[in-house]
Each structure stands twice: as structure tokens, then as C-alpha cells.
Amino acid sequence: MTKIEEFLSNKKVRPTAMRQLIYKFMAQKQVAVALTDIEKAFAKAERTTLYRTIKTFEDKGIVHQIEDGTGISKYALCEGGCTVEDHHDLHLHFHCTHCDETTCLTEYKIPQISLPPGYSADDMNLVVQGTCDKCDVQNTIS
Asked: What is the DSSP letter of 11?
């Protein structure tokens, strides 16, 4: 059994060939990916299969969804410790307005927020927009 098969099995996800390929594709990316990016990478696969795989991964604590302000949902692999009941991906996300890539900044955690009485949070997302390190280097070289 491969590491990916074992990981998916431990998350209670049947490790089909397509699920393994999508997981591997996402693991190789350094940035969050949109469903259209996955569709382009697996052009011969059924769109519904890809969508269901991402939803299954999200439901099982394998990926988290990122709303980066572009109007397009993006997905990135979760950090260790995420479960079906509880995602622990409370870190900053950075969206580069030059290259349009969104990156998880896992080492920068979102601080605990105190809400007024009667309010309860179901989800939290913090996106910083600006220029990423790759685009900043390119701008200084030009």
C-alpha cells in the first residue's frame, strides 16, 4: 500500500486511482488550486468525479476551501490534525494580485477572536492581498 493509499484509508476515504491522482496533484502544488485547475490537469476525467472528490476531501478533513476575494473557491491540503468534525486550518492565506496565486501561510496563525455575547463563529478566513515573493523579485529585477 502506498503512502497516499494509506493516508486516504486512514481518513476513511476509499483510495481510488482518481482520488490518489488528485491528492498527489494537490500535494505537488505550492499554491491553492481552483476546481478549474484540477479540471485542466485531468481533462479526460468526468467533471462530476473531480468535484465529488474535492467535496469528499473537504468533508473528511483532507482539504480546506479558501475564499480569496476573487469569487473563485480554491482548495489546499489541510495541515495535520484536521478531522471530519474539526478543521484546524486557521492560518493566513495570501493572494498575489500580480500572479493571481493564493498561498497558505501555515506558520502565521489567525489569533483567537472574542465575539460579543450571542455571536458564534462557524468559520474564519483571513486573506491578505498584495505581491508575493516571486512577483516582488521579478519586479525588482526588471
From this structure: T
Domain region containing 112: 3-141
State the CATH number of the domain containing residue 46. Answer: 1.10.10.10
75 and 58 in contact (C-beta within 8 Å)? yes
DSSP classification of residue 80: T
Give me the DSSP letters along 43-65.
TTS-HHHHHHHHHHHHHTTSEEE
If one counts the domains in the chain, the total is 1
The C-alpha cell at 57 is 476531501
Instruction: List per-residue pLDDT tens for the chain, 142 residues long.
Output: 899 999 999 999 999 999 999 999 999 998 999 999 999 999 999 999 999 999 999 999 999 999 988 899 999 998 877 766 666 667 889 999 999 999 988 888 888 888 999 998 877 788 999 999 889 766 666 5
